[in-house]
Design a protein that fits this description.
Oligomer: single chain
Largest sheet: 7 strands, mixed
Strand content: 15-25%
Bound molecules: arginine
Shape: elongated
Number of strands: 36
Distance between the termini: 92 Å
Length: about 700
Amino acid sequence: MMRYLMCRPDFFGVEYVINPWMDGNVGRARAEEARRQWEGLHALVSARAEVSLIAPASGLPDMPFTANGGLVAGDIFVPSRFFYAQREPEVDHHRAWFRSAGFRVEELRSGAAFEGEGDALFQPGQRLLWAGYGVRSALETHRDLTDIFQVEVVSLRLVDQRFYHLDTCFAPLPGGKVFYFPPAFDDPSVETIRNRVAPEDRYEVGEEDALNFACNAVVAGDAVIMNYASAALRERLNRWGFEVLTTPLTEFMLAGGAAKCLSLKLEQDLPPPAAGAPPVQSPVRECTLELSGHLLSTGLMNEALDVVTDSGGSFSIEKFEPGARRDMVSVVRLRVFAPSEARLADLTRRLVDRGAVVAEDERDAELVEADADGVLPEDFYSTTIYPTEVRLGGRWVEATGQRMDAALVVAPDGSVRCTLMRDVRRGDRVVCGVAGIRIRARRPRVSHDDFGFMVSGVSSERRVEVAVEQLAWEMRRIRARGGRIVAVAGPVVIHTGGGPYLARLIRGGWIQALLGGNALAAHDIEHALYGTSLGVDLRRGESVAEGHRNHLKAINLVRRCGSIANAVGSGLVTQGIMYECIKRSVPFALAGSIRDDGPLPDTIMDLVVAQREYARLLEGADLVLMLSTMLHSVGAGNMIPAGVKMICVDINPATVTKLTDRGSLESTGIVTDVGLFLHLLTQRVETAA
Ligand code: ARG
């Protein structure tokens, strides 16, 4: 005979809002109807199981939901720790009831939220506890449950506020069966369920069942009792040998609960542990990290906590010293929990990328030797654009050649260099894991002024002029001190009539290197020779007859000369961007691609070589102008460390956002026609020069 604990709804009501079901329903539950519905459920359950009652308490309107009071197995009762203060006083009533009923009360060690059987369901006949977390209960309590009950605890993360407790969307049944609503869980959790339960033993309900609390079911004898069951669910449960009994619980649904919530199991069908079995260990892992900086004003604190939660982890703040003034930094010590070793590694990696340092035992970085040329050890650390230090022999060593998506290789002399995967040699020592890595993520304080100076963001329309003015000012300063400005340009620069302006900037000594592709040079030279760009006469804005051949003719002529330099030297090309580069000895790199016509003799069709050239020309750049080319801008962006200002100009806001979002905080996006932009910029730098 199964045993349940229930509580008469004498003081039931919706008096506050702690879940989406309660929203809009405060004061709307009808006491008389609720009592009738509860009696209906009680009659069905008590006909098939033994029901004990706990006395209701006034002022505790959710107390009829006894499933949330705690969790029972054998003679052990683990009291809940409610997430919301409104329900916390219920726990004392439960503690007292269980004590007097002869149970041993075991408190959770972690002190985090745990809402009892609402979030923890034993699989009948197995030593297996399905445990939910992410909305109400905290992951770290799953470790306590493992220790206390010595069963395997499978953590399932809930991601839909409407299904805030595991028992709202998951129902284990005798015989190893389960039925559940997959969208209530994150993908890894659905995966876990599917891996652990054979297809013929599980049934995935649809929205109709889920939203009518079909999963919130009480099992009594051979009966499954719930508020509602669709024909399909009924059919499946019958096939599995269960009788399906529905009884209306609509008044309780106003509070976000139904059949299962209204009863707490007093006895589990828990087989004894195998003789001589080793103690059960929880897969939940933890790690302590420290983070310091302007955590509050930059929003980094919130971001870090969100990273933990969004990666399926949980956290507790062990120490927090807030920067009391705007000029002071904050320091936080975070203890993070993840459902497995692998998930913890993933989570800590994300925090380390935001500047956190693994605090535990102040370890040196872990080094693993590459076992083949051009191949990294599996667990390699991949770099960001931010200055990075590696702890070796107790000393922090700053990496050189900082760029994103590289590995950290430790040279025999102890120096550390950002190294591309393909450049790693067998025997190189590669930094792995995340311990002993420190990143200085320099985040500017979030600026709320509309016209903050060169702050990241996307400007458009009226802001363009302001942005260009600031940029011109910056370019004058860079030129005055002999700094480097690199332009990355797409053929749109030519199509929009920006060519002559970019040429003028090069002639004026404003650009120290030019990066682009075959098309940039092809159309620039086409324009220099024929006045067209892709066959369009740029002065008149019309297509010229046979104009579609013009860029091919231009490429062909240069090919005959052997190089762009020769084409300029021989007097063939007398103006334009490439002309100015040759005349002013401004180095350029043209990276090839699959769609190139020709190509021009100068275009580098070996992309590994082209990447190397780009990187060489970007070295020491102070400012990079990205002019309407997503492909080459992304390529360049990958090589640029934090601290280099990037200006991304494109008519398409999505392109600008994509480029400015790539981690660099010194990037400014300008949504405008690149031809107009270059015109304006040329005027601005020249007037004040
Ligand atoms: N109003 C209650 C709450 O939000 C309802 C609890 C329902 N219980 C359950 N096990 N799902 O806490």
